[in-house]
Structure formats: C-alpha cells, structure tokens
Inverse folding.
C-alpha cells in the first residue's frame, strides 16, 4: 500500500508539471514520442497509451475488483460488460493478449545525470551517473565539497546537439536550430523546423535520415554549416553580368549588368535603350535571343559585329572611273581610271597620268580621254608605236631645230617639223602669236564657244561646264542634301499618312523631305509613316525598334525636345 501511495504521489507531481509547462510542451512531447516510435517496433498509439495509463491507473483503483485475477503492476477491474480487465501502471504498455503490463524504455521519464532502464519488476527505474546518488526521483551530489567539475567534452554525445555544463557542474546540451529537446534527445519538429529558423533560407524540412532540421538557401547564398552565406560565384555566372559582389557575409550576392542590359530580378535582360551605337548602323534593337543587334545603313553590311562598306552597293556610275569601298570600309568613294584625275566628283583627263608609249607623245583628246601620236617613221599597232618600214630614215626629235613658242616633232614623212604652243600659230617656219578678226578663225574647243577678243582667240565654256586647265568639264551637281535628326527608339503618337514601303531609313528621310513633312517614323525595317502638319514632336514617346526623324539637326532641338533623354539617341543624317 505504501508503494502504491508513493507512485500516486509521483504521478500527481508529474501531472502538475505537465499542466504548468503548458500546451506547447505537451505538443512537443507528442512529436518526440512519434519520433521515438519510428526507431522501435512499437507504434505511436502504444507509446501514447502507455503515457495515458497514469490517469487510467488512478481511475482503475477506484473501480478495482478483487475477484478478478491480479496482474503485476496493474489494477484488476471489471469492464462495462462485466468481464475482468486490468489497467497498467504509469509508463507501462498493456499487452492484452499476454495479459501483462510491459515496460517501455522510451516512455520512461528522463532524470538528469541518470541512465534509464526497466527493472526486474517490469517498471521504469534509473541509476545515477558519476558521484551522484539516488534521492527520490532525482540524482544529487554524493560528496561534501559539491559535485565534481564538469567538462563539455566529457559529457555524453547527443546527436544534433552542443554539449555544455550547468552552473551546478552538471552536463547539459542545447539542440541545434529547428530541433526541440525531449526525453534526453534533440528531435525535429515541423512546427520549429521552418525557414524562420535560418537567415536567407528558401525551404526547411525534417531530415529523417539524420534526425536534423535541414534547409536550402536562397539564390545568391550557399550553405555553410547552419548558415546561408553570400556566394559571389552565383552572381558572376549569371549571363551578361559586368560585375558582382557580396554586400555582407550573410546577404545574397549582388551584381551589375553589362552595357545594353538591365536588371530583371536575378537576371540581366536586353534593353533597347542601352544597346550601344554602332557606326554606320541605321538603328539598334534587342533581337529574339535577348541580345543587342543592329541593322546597317544603306551601302553597308554587317561583318564581325561592325557595319562595313559593301562593294556590291557602290553602284554610282562614274565616266572614266568607278565607285569602290574606302580602304577602311567606312563608305564608297570614286576612283579614276589611269590617265584621269578626280575633280569635283568627276574623272577628267590628266595628261601627266596618261600612260607612256615609246616613240610617241601623249595628249588629252576632245572627249577628255588620253591619246597618243607616234613619231614620224612609226605607226600605231596594238596600242604601241612600231617602226614604219625597214631601212627608212628615222627622224630624231632631239636633233630637230628649236622653234620659239613651238614643240619639235617628226612629221609623217620622217622629217623635222614643229607645232606651236597655245595662242601661237605656225607662219613662215615660226610660231607667231595668234591674231583673229572673228571667232570662226579660232580653234574649236569641246563644250565651249570660241571668242575672238582684241585679235586673240579664247573660249567660254557652255552652261553647266567650266574651264579646268583649258578644258571645259561639267560643273558638279549643286549640293541639295538636307539634314535629318534621327531619334532611335522613339516615335510620334500622332496619326500620320498611310505608311509607304521603302528600302532604308535614308529612303524614308528622302521621302519625308520630298513631301515636305514635319516628321516621320521608320519601323519594321521598311515602313515609312510621315506626319504632315503640326510639330515634329507631337505626342512624342519611346518605342522599341522605331526611328523618329525630324528635318533639321540634333542641335536644333536640344531646347524643344519633350524627352531630354532622347537627345542621347539622336544622330544627324543627310539626304538628297
């Protein structure tokens, strides 16, 4: 009877502690028991039933029946049907088939500085560790000078815990984050194992293999021990990143995007407004793959990420010359054939550049082309001067007499002769200054009208021609190019004329000038919509892959453009 009374008093004290500790510990107790049951063949219901026996046992005492068989560590009772039954003592599991109460080690209460076990009587018991002795349900110091000193490294190893010593010199431990302490162990609890337990964690869960609270880190951090620390390598590996860094040790890595890209979350995406300007490009844009691209202006093609001159597009027709690409590929230019030189955009004859023909003298003919005349005693054959006949006497120019204001030659009969310089005429074996009484006496000059003034011959070039070194050559066409300010990435919201299909932004600008428009929008690489009337910046706004053009220069509109940032995208273009 005394033993039963002590057990009832012990159970009463345990019940009071449970009530004082509150619902949270009760919930933790249930979870801890569930974890313990996973490692043993006993079910969670069995463990729960064993712990509830402390109250059932007290109730059973009140309705016990001495006529029923007595079971060790139990109270015999009659059930509602009148059959014999029994209720097990505290922390014991009822085995109805065997008709006995079984001790469960995992269900035995934990006592500090002790080792639990099931004794020979089949009930929970414990032995004290070290120099401690058992007093009631506690282990106390057994020496006069207090308990022996505690060293954490000598304390029992508890999985997922950090050992420590209490102020009284007893071993203790603290569970790692996300775990709760129950029955001398650290158990994972889904209510405590959450992302809030770890900085920069994206997910947390109970790891059944290790019994620990495991977690995954947010982007930009990596797992080191129980922490998520900055991982700069994650940012440097992001596509199109210019630089990356760690703001602090425990913060996600940060980064800056490369030119032509902008930040969108944890990635760098193409930005039309930041695409770099490429020389000789009509406009830049973001292509379908998300990178900056560009279309080259007329007469240029894309090569090695640059716009270079396309020889096939240098199609200007130049008499006595050709249109070719510059050596640096920056555009087309005119080159003249041998014997010609470039003057005001035209290739004109230059006797100094005419090819040298042996035994001849060269000149520019009336058509502006190089010609040559063979010396006497020679004849033209396949563009060369060959000897006229074998054994014929040869005239040597340098042996002919010098004539003032004349040029020594050998005539067709192989004799010395001469021709007079300009403004002189041959008379009586001399070169006399030309005197005239009427224009018809003066020599004819191509593309000119002869003039006799003060008894001297001269000429006047016809309209559209001018005198260049005694030759009338065409005047260069007057420059009628007009400036157009191009704003890449912008458009007019004002409705314009019906779009026209053109081949380039230059053609769109020329069409705008021809129609005397105030502005135009070039889009889809071949659509030209002009605005007639109003202002050049009516309902002006940004628009990808659109070029807005306004007659004039960029500098003309610095003070009047509605969006100041558009000035950075402006470039000047000249069209006919």
């Amino acid at each position: 009877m005394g033993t039963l009374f002590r057990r009832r008093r012990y159970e009463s004290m345990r019940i009071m502690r449970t009530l004082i500790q509150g619902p949270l510990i009760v919930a933790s107790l249930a979870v801890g028991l569930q974890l313990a049951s996973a490692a043993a063949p006993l079910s969670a219901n069995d463990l729960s039933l064993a712990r509830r026996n402390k109250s059932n046992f007290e109730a059973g005492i009140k309705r016990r029946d001495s006529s029923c068989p007595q079971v060790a560590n139990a109270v015999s009772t009659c059930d509602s049907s009148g059959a014999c039954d029994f209720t097990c003592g505290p922390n014991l599991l009822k085995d109805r088939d065997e008709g006995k109460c079984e001790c469960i080690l995992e269900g035995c209460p934990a006592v500090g500085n002790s080792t639990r076990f099931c004794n020979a009587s089949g009930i929970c018991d414990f032995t004290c560790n070290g120099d401690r002795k058992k007093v009631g349900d506690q282990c106390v110091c057994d020496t006069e000078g207090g308990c022996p000193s505690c060293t954490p490294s000598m304390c029992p190893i508890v999985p997922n815990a950090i050992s420590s010593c209490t102020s009284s010199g007893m071993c203790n431990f603290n569970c790692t984050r996300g775990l709760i302490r129950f029955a001398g162990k650290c158990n994972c609890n889904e209510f405590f194992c959450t992302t809030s337990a770890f900085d920069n964690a994206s997910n947390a869960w109970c790891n059944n293999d290790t019994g620990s609270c495991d977690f995954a880190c947010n982007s930009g951090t990596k797992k080191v021990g129980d922490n998520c620390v900055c991982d700069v390598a994650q940012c440097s590996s992001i596509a199109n990143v210019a630089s990356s860094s760690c703001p602090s040790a425990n913060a996600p890595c940060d980064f800056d995007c490369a030119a032509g890209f902008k930040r969108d979350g944890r990635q760098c995406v193409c930005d039309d407004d930041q695409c770099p300007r490429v020389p000789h490009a009509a406009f830049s844009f973001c292509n379908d793959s998300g990178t900056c691209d560009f279309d080259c202006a007329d007469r240029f093609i894309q090569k090695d990420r640059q716009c270079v001159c396309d020889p096939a597009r240098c199609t200007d027709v130049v008499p006595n010359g050709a249109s070719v690409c510059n050596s640096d590929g920056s555009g087309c230019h005119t080159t003249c054939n041998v014997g010609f030189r470039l003057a005001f955009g035209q290739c004109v004859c230059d006797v100094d550049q005419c090819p040298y023909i042996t035994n001849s003298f060269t000149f520019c003919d009336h058509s502006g082309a190089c010609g040559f005349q063979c010396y006497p005693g020679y004849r033209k054959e396949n563009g060369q001067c060959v000897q006229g006949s074998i054994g014929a006497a040869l005239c040597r120019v340098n042996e002919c007499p010098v004539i003032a204001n004349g040029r020594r030659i050998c005539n067709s009969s192989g004799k010395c002769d001469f021709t007079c310089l300009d403004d002189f005429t041959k008379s009586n074996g001399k070169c006399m200054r030309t005197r005239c009484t009427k224009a018809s006496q003066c020599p004819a000059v191509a593309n000119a009208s002869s003039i006799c003034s003060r008894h001297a011959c001269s000429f006047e070039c016809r309209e559209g021609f001018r005198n260049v070194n005694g030759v009338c050559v065409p005047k260069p066409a007057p420059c009628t190019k007009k400036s157009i300010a191009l704003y890449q990435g912008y458009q007019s919201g004002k409705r314009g004329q019906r779009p026209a299909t053109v081949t380039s932004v230059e053609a769109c600008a020329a069409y705008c000038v021809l129609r005397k428009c105030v502005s135009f929008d070039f889009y889809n690489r071949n659509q030209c919509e002009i605005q007639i009337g109003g202002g050049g910046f009516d309902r002006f706004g940004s628009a990808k892959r659109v070029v807005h053009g306004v007659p004039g220069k960029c500098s003309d509109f610095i003070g009047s453009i509605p969006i100041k940032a558009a000035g950075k995208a402006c470039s000047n273009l000249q069209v006919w």
Notes: The longest helix spans residues 2-21. Residues 232-270 form one domain. Residues 1-45 have pLDDT under 50 and may be disordered.
